[in-house]
């Protein structure tokens, strides 16, 4: 086979955003015969792509290295002229890096910043449609002939990932995965509501409940260990072990977070709770089996495109109106209970 095009994909962060690139990554690799795909991302998220068969060369960037690190990346790639660069981040860092790379064509994701700002700050909705983020990534590939293959997101890991996970769980009890965390306060369903939901789940379902999240959430989630059928794994699982646990679970209950997109990638049904963010922003689960729980009557949604550290109006009704009963009924619909 003759050598295909040299392609570079750039998405530095974060968990969900990188997982959302995996459909486009597959489409690029399979639709450009012989393509050699380089993917540039931050070191802390590299495992999400490390075992992906559509990445030929994974380049990790240490954000602590700043401009020096970006210059080193560019120097390492100085002998490559990319046929296509797909900048799926489109921020100052990606612009700086691509300014130093050699390429024939470059396409960047269009973020509709003005339309988004008008919706968030004035509630004027000028979106004519609500394409998902993976569909917006796909648009960057139109000039290269990349088309939607109709498939979803993907994650890959080596066999030892599941073996290590199995040793942590000790038994084969059926699981429900719970992810009470998120990157911002206004995207987190109140912890008190989780405390009310968990006893109901234990009473009406035979599953064990596995709490997953980051190291900064371990202590907070200890408050949710209300029974010996609840295990707090927050901070204990690397990214791919978390994905393997979600895949093994009957369902996931989560907020709008990176874990939500991981569930879509491993095709686990989920209940996704949305507070300050809405469908228009593009981050609803992509081609997933999902029950969305949200307060569609709250006029101030969305108050941010990523989330806030506090409710700007001090009522947090976008989340507080969503009772544990709402979430439990959504799970029952999902499981056919």
Can you walk through the features of this model?
It contains 14 helices and eleven strands. It has 337 residues and is an alpha/beta fold. The chain has a six-stranded parallel β-sheet with strand order 8-7-6-9-10-11, with helices on both faces. The chain is globular and about 60 Å long. The chain has two domains: 6-144, Rossmann fold, CATH 3.40.50.2000; 160-335, 3-Layer(aba) Sandwich (Rossmann fold). The N and C termini lie far apart (52 Å). Helix 5 (92-100) links the parallel strand 4 and strand 5.
Which parts are unreliable, with pLDDT below 50 for 5 consecutive residues or more? none
| Fraction of residues in β-strands | 15-25%
Count every beta strand, where a strand is a DSSP E run of 2 or more residues. Answer: 11
Q: For the largest beta sheet, what order do the strands appear in spatially?
A: 8-7-6-9-10-11
What is the structural class? alpha/beta
Q: Given the structure, what is the number of helices?
A: 14
**Named CATH architecture of the largest domain:** 3-Layer(aba) Sandwich
* Shape, per Cα inertia axes: globular
* CATH class wording of the largest domain: Alpha Beta
Question: What separation lies between the terminal Cα atoms?
Answer: 52 Å
Give the averaged pLDDT, no decimals: 96
User: Which H/E pattern describes the elements?
Assistant: EHHEHEHEHEHHHEHEHEHEHEEHH
Tell me the count of domains. Answer: 2
Would you spell out the secondary-structure blueprint of this structure?
Blueprint: E1 6-10, H1 15-19, H2 22-31, E2 36-42, H3 47-50, E3 57-61, H4 66-76, E4 81-87, H5 92-100, E5 102-108, H6 113-122, H7 133-139, H8 159-169, E6 175-179, H9 191-204, E7 208-211, H10 218-221, E8 230-232, H11 239-248, E9 252-255, H12 258-265, E10 270-273, E11 290-293, H13 317-320, H14 324-335
Parallel strand pairs: 1-2, 1-4, 2-3, 4-5, 6-7, 6-9, 7-8, 9-10, 10-11
């Amino acid at each position: 086979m003759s050598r295909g095009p040299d392609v570079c994909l750039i998405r530095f962060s974060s968990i969900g955003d990188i997982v959302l690139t995996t459909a486009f990554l597959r489409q690029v690799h399979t639709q450009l015969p012989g393509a050699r795909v380089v993917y540039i991302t931050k070191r802390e998220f590299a495992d999400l792509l490390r075992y992906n068969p559509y990445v030929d060369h994974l380049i990790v960037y240490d954000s602590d290295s700043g401009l020096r690190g970006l210059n080193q990346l560019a120097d390492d790639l100085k002998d490559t002229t990319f046929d296509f660069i797909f900048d799926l981040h489109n921020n100052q860092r990606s612009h700086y890096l691509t300014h130093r790379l050699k390429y024939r064509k470059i396409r960047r994701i269009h973020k509709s910043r003005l339309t988004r700002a008008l919706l968030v700050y004035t509630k004027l909705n000028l979106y004519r449609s609500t394409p998902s983020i993976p569909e917006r990534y796909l648009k960057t590939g139109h000039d290269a002939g990349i088309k939607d293959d109709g498939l979803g997101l993907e994650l890959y890991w080596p066999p030892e990932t599941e073996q290590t996970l199995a040793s942590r769980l000790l038994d084969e009890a059926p699981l429900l995965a719970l992810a009470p965390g998120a990157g911002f306060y206004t995207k987190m369903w109140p912890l008190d509501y989780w405390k009310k939901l968990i006893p109901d789940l234990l009473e009406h379902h035979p599953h064990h409940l596995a709490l997953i999240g980051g190291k900064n959430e371990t202590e907070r989630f200890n408050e949710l260990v209300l029974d010996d059928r609840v295990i707090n794994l927050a901070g204990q699982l690397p990214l791919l072990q978390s994905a393997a646990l979600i895949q093994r679970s009957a369902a996931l209950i989560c907020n709008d977070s990176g874990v939500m997109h991981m569930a879509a990638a491993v095709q686990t049904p989920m209940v996704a709770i949305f507070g300050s963010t809405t469908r228009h922003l593009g981050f609803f689960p992509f081609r997933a089996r999902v029950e969305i729980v949200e307060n569609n009557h709250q006029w101030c949604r969305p108050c941010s495109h990523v989330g806030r550290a506090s409710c700007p109006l001090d009522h947090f009704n976008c989340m507080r109106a969503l009772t544990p009963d709402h979430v439990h009924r959504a799970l029952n619909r999902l499981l056919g209970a």
